[in-house]
Amino acid sequence: MEQMFIYLVPVLGIVGLIIMAIKSAWVTKQDAGDATMQELAGHIARGAMAFLRAEWKVLFYFVVIAGIVLGWSGTLVENSSWIIAISFVIGAVLSAFAGYLGMNIATKANVRTTEAARTSLAQALKVSFTGGSVMGIGVAGLAVLGMGSLFILFYNMFVVSTGGDVNGDAMATALEVLAGFSLGAESIALFARVGGGIYTKAADVGADLVGKVEAGIPEDDVRNPATIADNVGDNVGDVAGMGADLFGSYVATILASMVLGREIVSVDNFGGIAPVLLPLIIAGLGLMFSIIGTLFVKISSETASVQSALNRGNWISIILTVAASYFVIMYMLPEGDLMLSRGGSIAFTKMGVFGAVVIGLIVGALMSIITEYYTAMGKRPVNSIIKQSSTGHATNIIGGISVGMESTVLPILVLAGGIYGSFLAAGLYGVAIAAAGMMATTAMQLAIDAFGPIADNAGGIAEMSGLPKEVRERTDILDAVGNTTAAAGKGFAIASAALTALALFAAYVGLAGINSIDIYKADVLSGLFVGAMIPFIFSSLAIAAVGRAAMDMVNEVRRQFREIPGIMEYKAKPEYEKCVEISTQASIREMVAPGAIALLAPIIVGFAFGPEVLGGLLAGITVSGVLMGIFQNNAGGAWDNAKKSFEKGVEIDGKMEFKGSEAHKASVTGDTVGDPFKDTSGPSMNILIKLTSIVALIIAPHISEVPHGTVSHLKNLEDSKEITLVEEISESNLEEVESLKMQ
């Protein structure tokens, strides 16, 4: 029975994909509205596919070249294999497919949400959230199926067939090859997120500045040439990019836990691989309980809270995952202090592992709550930006930057507490399993996140189709909540990145054969500073790319208003395709430089200066990137909802201010500044952090200072008197641990 337990993981992934297909079919069967609505939705769908085809064409060459290099490098060291290239390609393909799944359903659900909004807010929420859940369940299902299947294959290939040690070099090789899957996923995620972010913000800024500010028409007005590109951008950036992003994050988190699980000696009923297998099982169960949670996201009246419905589904999935994790951990892990992590100073029990999972889920929930506070309408931070908008554009910018900087305090304290608490509970493995626990409900988190862009598109279609006012009011309610959930999702992602990066960092240290990162050394300290700089130059490149692409878009929109007579009088149609083409070409061109930095920086530093300096680089990237990501995501989200608040009217110093007022124009400027923060640079930080760590993990065997199998590593530490068994290890298990050491 226990030996068959490993096959449960891919089965759960398949079940998830079947449910995804059922939900997708339901969305497709819904009414898509009249001919005008369907025509507009067709423009959006074709534009989104045009972008994906252009992006995939470029990424195809990258995947082929990188795969060849990886395959060749895998033959150079003992603890790797050329098969890592195949693993890399599979990860890249599934990551791209995850993005496509989300975009495909989003471009179907948007117009159907618009039509549903004609009926009621409840029906509009049902259609948009079901569309989002298709993406969430699909992404998590692909990750669980891919990771589970490949682990079974590599475990049998490198460990079982050779009779290798599950704590030694054989398992290290299996996981090193599996790391290629994560590298492929994160690489595609970075390019998809950056490219999609540049696309969507170039179109958004062009639609805002020329349409709303200069021409005085709504950004979603059918006369605005950039409006189709703007709605396409919601799909390629906030849906396809986000899908690839969280697919990569999900996979990286599971991988980090598995790599550290190899270093735990466990006498269990699973052949000693229970600590390695556990993160996969938790991920599979989290997928199932996320599906259950989606059933509770519904409202019954026009005045019901959409945010409360989403929170209800989220908390149900979290609570069920916690309960299931307890029973799984009690079943899989052995009794007593049978687990010995690297360093020899920490022995822990399965209750400690469960405690770490709970801590991870609590950290994720708190991060979402804190982010919601800093970005939601009606809360103090957004209200402070609204108030400062009354005195002009500059004070609005100052207010947004201040809110973004302030918003780093509580998340960092929560993260620090989570890291320390999970380490006390189960050592470095506890930190990794906490991240796995946090990401277990990714399907639910992504469903909540993805429904926002669908609702945004639905509102755009309603505006362009000239539907009744109450339709747009309903989609605006969903869109406003979507802005908050999107910010919360990005906060969740950056928190998972911090925990996962620390786990990957710990795994890297073990594989690289070093015991610590000594910042008293000048070269290591230099690496730390260079690492801290990388998120800044990365952000600079991404934001500057948005600026250049937006200038092209602004010039094109102005040209069409100038050269095509009759646009403003509805007598001529704008050339939407020209704007779509500008965003596509700019995003593909501009995504290369930021991606190259993330991939090449750890390789250059690692081979030029050694593993310890590379460790310093990773530490700098992690700390700086987490802070930068939180700041940019929250500042951008707060600016956006400050602008949206004017659409219903806000009171400033006893006077009501509405859309079109000077204060509203100042808020539009703030939102324009915040757009590349929250949709291009900020969300890319978590991928940057994890991608550099995964690259370091893969090159670790090539730059390692000593052999890194668990057995040989323990011997090296024993010889240097750096390892002592803790006194707390129970007498009943002492002989087993001593026997393992003597081997």
TrEMBL record:
Bilayer topology annotation: Multi-pass membrane protein
Enzyme Commission number(s) of this protein: 7.2.3.1
One Gene Ontology molecular-function label: inorganic diphosphate phosphatase activity
Pfam families in the record: H_PPase
Regulation (activators, inhibitors): Requires K(+) for maximal activity.
Keyword line: Cell membrane, Hydrolase, Ion transport, Magnesium, Membrane, Potassium, Sodium, Sodium transport, Translocase, Transmembrane, Transmembrane helix, Transport
Residue intervals passing through the bilayer: 6-27, 58-76, 82-106, 127-155, 239-260, 272-295, 315-333, 353-374, 492-514, 526-550, 591-610, 616-635
Protein purpose: Sodium pump that utilizes the energy of pyrophosphate hydrolysis as the driving force for Na(+) movement across the membrane.
Family: Belongs to the H(+)-translocating pyrophosphatase (TC 3.A.10) family. K(+)-stimulated subfamily.
Subunit structure: Homodimer.
Protein name: Putative K(+)-stimulated pyrophosphate-energized sodium pump
Species in which this protein is naturally found: Belliella kenyensis
